[in-house]
Amino acid sequence: MSASDSARQVVECRVCGAADWQEVVSFGPVPLANSYLDPADSYDDEPRYPLDVVSCRSCRLMTLTHVVDPEVLYRDYSYVTSDSETMDRHMRLVAKLCRERFDVPEGSFVVELGSNTGEQLMIFRDAGMRTLGIDPARSIAAVAEEQGIETLPEFFSASTAKSVAESHGQARVILGRHVFAHIDHVAGIAVGVRNLLEPEGVFAIEVPYALDMLERTEFDTIYHEHLSYYAVGTLATLFERHGLRVIDVERISVHGGSILVFVGHGDGPWQQRPAVKELIALEERAGLHDDATYREFAAKVRNVTESLTALVRGLRADGKRIAGYGAPAKGNTLLTVCGLGPDDLEFCSDTTDLKQGKVLPGSHVPVRTPEYAREHAPDHYLLLAWNYTEEILRKERAFLESGGKFIVLHPEPSVVSAESLAAAESVAAARRS
Ligand code: TYD
Ligand code: ZN
């Protein structure tokens, strides 16, 4: 089967049904971001798929133009939730917000879509809830089971929802953290949620926030798994069409700026909190409904790409050794779009067992363990896992103090050192006092 056989071209908007698209960015055919390669394999026939983003002029959904078959993307998925303090703290916050705002008594049934290895559900289980994970990645679902979290190795759909409701009863909470934006047939999900959710239950989804992506030029979060880039207004339109209602929203910092959106039955007991209308108004003021905003984003993407490439190549010309810090999926978009490869980055260091010893798709940079990276420390690390910047800079104090530097992407590509961080910290401290 060729790559084009396993991708569907989007014609109508999955949210509103319109077909009036504005082109946003086009990154051309690129390999799948989580398809890490075995160094023993030949890379010549790496499947590539179009990676182009358009925006619906009617509801302002941003979507990829091509949807890769989920069977190809997720059955042998190697993505595991990062074992990090930042994520652990965040997952605790999600559980706390659900329980505090939407009255989730002990013994409630909590279902998670795209539950990965089960870490989020463990927090609910430890708070006395019954839990069930649903995740199509078979080997990852098996890891969750080993960790004591019952997990169905399935895609969530209207029929899965029906059978879970029959076998386990209805759910008080349905979670979808960083999975909802990966789903093409959102109407089927809405039908499933309506079936499975108790009348006073809450469906809590977390998606990267389109406003943050546009304002901070986070174009590397664009890869084939991320089909949709949602604003609150777009989600409100979507759920309203399917008998559900956005009842609350919280902006959160994970993955470069995300929103945690709470959804209830359209005729359910929960009033909509003011935060929902406030963010929709903010999106209008920020120009999310204007073509010009998306043209500006495309121009910023070109600038960042050019300045990062020039920065890296300049350092290489000065004889500096550079490695990637982390081998996240978004790093693969970044390196592919910038055309950076093994001549620029010697290796990427990553804590994930499944990635170590592999080679990055597209750029073909090898992935090494953090131990290897310490023994072969480069002059500069390109901080690919920038969503963990604070945690990583804290962890890499010794590297910085011995003269090592980081190339950071935000707010614009630049080099940070122990001295520049100390200077920035004293400016911040002066502002605070
Ligand atoms: P992740 O945040 O999951 O991003 P994406 O959705 O783009 O794949 O990826 C973070 C990657 O960084 C993951 O492979 C683990 C790695 N990592 C490290 O190597 N060291 C660290 O200290 C942290 C926090 C992450
Ligand atoms: Zn639309």
Automatic annotation (TrEMBL):
Keywords: Methyltransferase, Transferase. This is Class I SAM-dependent methyltransferase. PANTHER family: BLL5978 PROTEIN, TRANS-ACONITATE 2-METHYLTRANSFERASE-RELATED. InterPro entries: Methyltransf_Zn-bd_dom_put, Methyltransf_Zn-bd_dom_put_sf, MeTrfase_14, SAM-dependent_MTases_sf. One of its GO terms (molecular function) is methyltransferase activity. The keyword Cytoplasm does not apply. It holds the Pfam family Methyltransf_14. Residues 13-74 form the Methyltransferase putative zinc binding domain. It comes from Streptomyces armeniacus. GO terms for biological process: antibiotic biosynthetic process; methylation. Residues 254-410 form the C-methyltransferase domain.
